[in-house]
Amino acid sequence: MIPRNERSELLRELAASSTGALITCDSGSMEPTIAVGQAVRVRALPSAALRVGDVVVYEGKDGVYIMHRIVFISPARNWFLHIGDASTKAGPRRALMSSIVGRVDRQRRRPPVRVYLQAARTFVRSYLP
Which of 104, 108, 16 has its CA nearest to residue 58? Predict the structure, then answer.
């Protein structure tokens, strides 16, 4: 998550600058890739430029900004599944592509196989009644 006091500043900076915004991670969900308190650069990109393995910042429910890795993008590219890099039993969650603020300047990497299995289950459940 991104601290509340940095949210509006982040959006203004992303909108005004082609170099992106420097933000601080305040959650352990992306450890060990991104540590709590570590500053990362986020750049605004069109959704077509995003790929599986990218770390993105998106606006979640309740206006909270979250930094997670994309593990699946829907065929229509209108939603994606995401998960933090920290070990957890919780599987990937779904969010709208339109909620993405930008991509974190980090090397893209593939999530572990367990994440793909969780993503497949989540994808199938999303189409079941």
Answer: 104
110 by Cβ neighbours in 10 Å (0-12 / 13-18 / 19+) ranks as exposed
Whole-prediction pTM: 0.77
Cα distances (Å, whole numbers) of residue 6 to 16, 28, 32, 38, 69? 15, 17, 22, 14, 20
pLDDT of residue 18: 77
Which DSSP string do the residues of the chain spell out, in sequence order? ---HHHHHHHHHHHHH-SS-EEEE---STTTTTS-TT-EEEEE---GGG--TT-EEEEE-GGG-EEEEEEEEE-TTSSEEEEE-SS--SS--EEEEGGGEEEEESS---PPPHHHHHHHHHHHHHHH--
**Rounded distance between C-alpha atoms, residue 59 and residue 3, angstroms:** 12
Q: Is the Cβ–Cβ distance between 19 and 40 less than 8 Å?
A: no
pLDDT at 125 over 80: no
Q: Give the separation between CA 31 and CA 114, rounded to whole angstroms.
A: 17
